[in-house]
Design brief:
- Helix content is 35%, strand content 9%.
- It is an alpha+beta fold.
- A hairpin with a 3-residue loop joins strand 1 and strand 2 (98-104).
- The relative contact order is 0.17.
- The structure holds heme C.
- Heme C (HEC) binds next to helix 3, helix 4 and helix 5.
Length: 198
């Protein structure tokens, strides 16, 4: 009888184990459960659709298009040139530091090879957002509010870069930056530091 009880105990323990066993528990889920099959993602299968969707959401919230979309700086954004750079520049002055304005033209962020970010890797874009250092000139970007983006989490920066890479490439060369004191031949808005007179 005693032996039977111990057999039963073993059997019951085994049954309990079998019932609780879940083969999926040993696996980590690597892909998000919800797939967002955006048209951009379908056209660019290399990037995770969920990343592209999140990047689009973040680029919208962070207002990148308010400078980088042609026309946006003067209140008439051209939707056919979404994030493809601005022909209107931004002049910046700070008479406490430098008296003449320099003018910068928000870059083409679409993946066009010649005029956009086509030759930038995703990591290049992530690094730029986190450090504010431009890949072309190696200088810290003026005007762009990158210090506000610098603490961005790596996953969010990656999502932004994936979204930018997924955009249709638009060929659009923005005017060259104008150094302080030189004449600008393209229009610009003025972003300066002023002080009222007494
Ligand atoms: C207030 C305007 C403004 C906003 C907002 C802005 N940028 Fe910029 N950005 C600029 C300007 C101006 C330049 C070019 C500066 C220069 O050439 O020195 C630039 C340059 C860049 C560059 C370098 C491209 C190149 O070819 O050198 C990248 C990448 C970039 N911006 C991405 C972004 C992203 C992503 C966002 C949103 C998260 C953003 N920017 C928001 C103004 C802005």
């Amino acid at each position: 009888m005693k032996q039977m009880i111990s057999y039963l105990t073993v059997l019951l323990t085994l049954c309990a184990c079998t019932a609780a066993y879940n083969p999926l528990e040993a696996y980590e889920q690597l892909t998000p459960a919800t797939r967002l099959d955006t048209p951009e993602a379908l056209a660019n299968p290399d990037f995770a659709p969920a990343d592209i969707a999140r990047g689009k959401y973040m680029v919208g919230l962070l207002g990148c298009g308010s400078c980088h979309t042609n026309g946006a700086l003067v209140g008439i954004p051209n939707s056919a040139q979404l994030l493809a750079g601005s022909d209107t520049g931004i002049a910046y002055t700070n008479p406490f530091v430098v008296s003449n304005p320099g003018v910068v033209y928000p870059a083409n962020l679409t993946p066009d090879m010649q005029t956009g970010l086509g030759s930038w890797s995703v990591q290049d874009i992530v690094t730029m957002l986190q450090t504010g250092v431009d890949k072309h000139s190696g200088q810290t970007l003026p005007v762009m509010p990158w210090p506000s983006y610098a603490n961005i989490e790596a996953a969010d920066a990656l999502a932004i870069a994936s979204y930018l890479k997924s955009l249709p490439a638009v060929q659009h060369k923005v005017p060259a930056n104008v150094r302080p004191g030189q004449r600008a031949s393209s229009p610009f808005v003025h972003f300066g530091v002023y002080q009222s007179k007494d």
